[in-house]
Design goal:
- The protein has 222 residues and is of the alpha/beta class.
- It has helices at residues 15-18, 21-28, 65-75, 94-100, 118-124, 140-151, 160-163, 166-170, 192-195, 199-217; strands at 2-8, 32-38, 51-52, 62-63, 80-91, 105-110, 115-116, 127-130, 184-185, 188-189.
- The chain folds into 2 domains: 2-151, SPOUT methyltransferase, trefoil knot domain (Alpha/beta knot, 3-Layer(aba) Sandwich), CATH 3.40.1280; 166-221, Trp Operon Repressor, Chain A (Orthogonal Bundle), CATH 1.10.1270.20.
- It binds (3-methoxyphenyl)methyl 1~{H}-pyrazole-4-carboxylate (JCQ).
- Residues 85-87, 111-112, 115-116, 130-132, 134-136, 138-139, 142 line the site of (3-methoxyphenyl)methyl 1~{H}-pyrazole-4-carboxylate.
Amino acid sequence: MMKIDVLTLFPAMFAGPLDESIIKRARDAGLLDLQLHQLRDWTHDRHKTVDDRPFGGGPGMLLKPEPIFEAVESLRREHTRVVLMSPSGRKFNQGIARELAQVEHLLLVTGHYEGFDERIREALAEDELSIGDYVLTNGALPAMVVIDAVARLLPGVLGDDTSSQDESFSAGMLEYPQYTRPAEFRGMKVPEVLVSGNHAEIAKWRAEHAKLRTKERRPDLL
Ligand code: JCQ
C-alpha cells in the first residue's frame, strides 16, 4: 500500500476533498494510507512559531528550518521521496504523476508565506513541484492536486474502464469532443458520423478533432 504523509499548517483544508469519492474508496480499500501532520506540532516555543523574517530584508516571512527539519526527520524512512510544494518547483504533469505513483512513501511538504529557508531545499528536498504558474496562499491545494493525480494511478484505484482514459493525455493531445444521448438536444445535433456505426470513420473523426482542438487550445503539446 502506498503511504503519503503531508506536512501542512492547514490539515483541515484536506478533509473534504480527500474524504470523497475515489480517494475515499482508495483509502477505505487499503490502497492508500494518507496522513496529515500539523507542522506546528514540531515547534517548541509557546507561540508555535514556524516562520521568521528573511536575512537581508524584504517583504514577507519564510518558513524557518527547525520545525521542518524535525518533522521530516521523524516522518521519513527508507524509500521516502520528500517533495516540496511551491511556485518555484518544476511543473507537475502526468509524467511526474506516473513517476510518483511508483514510490513507496511520499512526504509532501507544503509551503506558505514567501517561501522556505533555502537550507530546507538543500538538505531535505528530493524534489520541488509547482502545479502551475500562479501563486496561491499556501501549498495545501497543490498537495491535494498531486495526491489526487497520483492516487488514481495506483493499482486497483480505478476500474479498468477509466484507467485507459489517460492514455489520450499521455499520447500528448487533448480529448476529442464527446456526446451522449439524446442525439438531438434543443436543436443541437450530435455529429452524424458518431451515430453512423462506421467505426473506421468515427476513429478518423476523433483523431482529426483531437488534433484541431489541441492546435487551437494547446499548440505547445503538438
Ligand atoms: C504551487 N503552483 C502554485 C505559496 C510559497 C514556498 O512555498 C510557497 C508555497 C505557496 C503555495 O503554492 C503555490 C503553488 N504550485 O502557490 C508561496
